[in-house]
Amino acid sequence: MQRITGFESFLIQKQRSTHGDIVILVAFQAAFRAQGPLAMLEHFDTIYSILHHFRSIDPGLKEDTLEFLIKVVSRHSQELPAILDDTTLSVSDQNAHLNALKMNCYQTNLMDLDLGGKGKKARTKAAHGFDWEEERQPLLQLLTQLLQLEIRYLWNHSIIEEEFVSLVTGCCYCLLEDPTISHQKNRPTREAITHLLGVALTRYNHMLSATMLQHFEHLAPVLLAAVSLWATDYGMKSTVGETVREIGQKCPQELSQYPSGTKGFAAFLTELAERVPAILMSSMCILLDHLDGENYMMCNAVLAAMAEMVLQVLNGSGGGGRAFPHHHEAAPLLHHQGQGEREPGGKAVSAILHSPN
Q1: Residues with Cβ < 8 Å from 157, sequence gap 6 or more?
Q2: For residue range 1-19, what is the model confidence (pLDDT) as tens digits?
């Protein structure tokens, strides 16, 4: 007997042999045909046991397990809207669907983490042509669909546990930590992660932390694309300010301890200014202290961002901005303009602000 800890405790009665897994999976499939998604309540051990031996089991069993798990979660996702609208739903049925939802998300998360395993062997295409990496996207899309439903009604007082949202989004962060996530072949996975986190942001106020850049330099272009999309397509312009605020609050001593992280911050800010200069402008005051710091990468990044805003927004040449911004938007730039003779980096700032058209 084994207890899995986390946001919820699931009790594993028995871990079976790989041969036993095949037999029990067939039993789970039969129960699913009879009971629907709630069959997971009685067969949680089955999927967990298979995932526990995932590296060593037969590729055919891996494929069958993944396809069946997707089928179970997809079916539950399709049935939940009607269940959530049922005003006569009993408390026991409500709890049953809530537990099934948690179990489904937990198992899907485990599967997704395993697909993102490290090593050449973990990324090898199965002999019979089943590509595990291609299956990440539908798994992430399934989780996104679940978050888009009004699942809060399954909880008491319609308040979703923060731990549940963290569970669903957890696989995203594990996949983002892999340096290969920025490769072109993983673009579908990146986009699926961006949309999943976008839904978590808009519906549950779950924000991806910019501190990931401090430890994973390869994430600069990935986070840039995500924040830009959330600010434009999702209408969440505040994500730009929150992300920039995290970076702006980093003290020079902390930045000096993580040179690669500083490089990630600098690349992110520079390219963010190129994509959404008008949105970034209102948050620039948070970054101005870095002009007086000793970290030349951050100083150059802030200067480059200011130059981009001058070219695209103040000059009215693009970036979705106006020819002349409101005074409160331009204030951070103009305030620093008059300090050129007194502060380090000031001359460079003044030169940018006075650059001819």
Answers
A1: none
A2: 333 434 444 544 444 445 5
